[in-house]
Amino acid sequence: MTSSFVATIGLEIHVQLDTQTKMFCRCRRTVDAPPNSHVCPVCLGMPGGLPVVNQGAVAMGVQLAEALSCTIHRQSVFARKNYFYPDLPKGYQITQHEAPLATDGVLADPETGEVVRVSRVHLEEDAGKSIHPQSGEHSLVDFNRCGAPLAEIVTEPEFHSPGAAVAWLKELWTLVDFLGICRGSMADGVFRCDANVSMAKVGCGELGVRTELKNMNSFQAILSALEFEIDRQTEVLRTGGRVLLETRLWDEGTGQTLVMRGKEEARDYRYFDEPDLPVLILEPMWLQRVVESTRETPGEVRRAFAHRFGLTREDVGRFTTSRKWADYAFEALERAQDIPAVCNWLNRDVANAIHQSGGDPSALSVAPDDISKLANLVESGTLSLPMARNVFRTMWSRVLPLAQCLEDAGHQESDESTLRTVVGELIDEFPDEARRYVAGKESLLRWFVGQAMRRTQGRGNPQIISQLFEKLLNRKEHP
Ligand code: ADP
Ligand code: ZN
Ligand code: MG
Fold it and tell me: Each residue of 432-465: b (16+ CB within 10 Å) or e?
């Protein structure tokens, strides 16, 4: 019976840090350069090449560890992890083994609030990339990625469903995005995750034998691989078999996990301290400065959205899926007169436009400021919603600022002398209101602007009208 087994999952995540150069040499770190165009004797493992630690990568590792509430160790040690593979020219990877940068962190799932412990965060270098062309006659290798800086995050085995593991992993992705230490996605290979999973009898108090799953290139693939593996292990156990400690590869095509290597072939990495690097010592003043410069976490930004604008949990969640989008939404909302109206614009027209332009908010030509202005024009009755949405589409497709779109479309009258006539007439027609405004009832300014908007059939530029009223009324003498 499936229900008598419980799944346990632990994750190992590799984050490629967004540095200019590689972990131990001065080659540029790239993701899309022509193969083998950014290599040197150090990252190619030539005899005599000596590694030098990239301080920027250490700083990003520290910020990640800080954001995960880890204990950051003032001293950590680089080690050699020895194995042979064509994409590893040195024959070993420099990593941290017994003395990692940081240990004992936590990160909560924002939906469920459930906290998962992070065992460790350590620094290491990436390997190159093997390429297997269709012809199948030979394989190629690209060493550009060789030596790129990685932070590895290892969780405790504390997830009990694929959904919980993937939701947490998404939060970790959001975290590194907000911290600005990793640019890209699972599809780009700069954020990768291996998943360990085991099954145990409910209430038996021990974890079962696990398998390690590799080769998943999307959140969906991780979900599917874990679901498949849980079913497979359950079936093995249900029929009296034993799960073997092995590494399995997710095959996207067939939707299965396949054995890559078993326990017998388990690698013996012969770790030893890297003789070419000294102990990594974090100087207290430097450490403090780096910790203090850590950017806001998604959790902090979510709280800011909720407190500042009183948004619903759903809206907060929608606006904090990435740093760029959160910055955009925050800026638009800061200038909103009507918060729910601006939320609607963001969720509807803006999100849609970003989606259609490839998903990157910074590629959207419409300034967040113009979104709040547009929403305000609708709220004040200056523009109808369909008109405003047309204006938005023009701003977006023709890369024009709001003011220009409004004038081009004949929607807005900004000529001062024309507007001054209207404003003057209204002041004459409503002497009482004018007096009360001048005497201090400031809310009447909005009322006057509204009258002027009506009189111009919504075409007057409300900002200019408002300035004109202030100018003319404040100059007027009153009894
Ligand atoms: P190793 O030293 O063999 O690499 P670790 O103890 O470092 O093993 O664990 C590696 C990953 O596997 C961690 O994410 C951990 O949470 C997970 N893990 C360990 N044991 C189990 C288990 N029995 N079931 C599921 N996951 C496990
Ligand atoms: Zn190099
Ligand atoms: Mg381990």
Answer: ebbebbeeeeeebbeebbebbbebbebbbbbebb
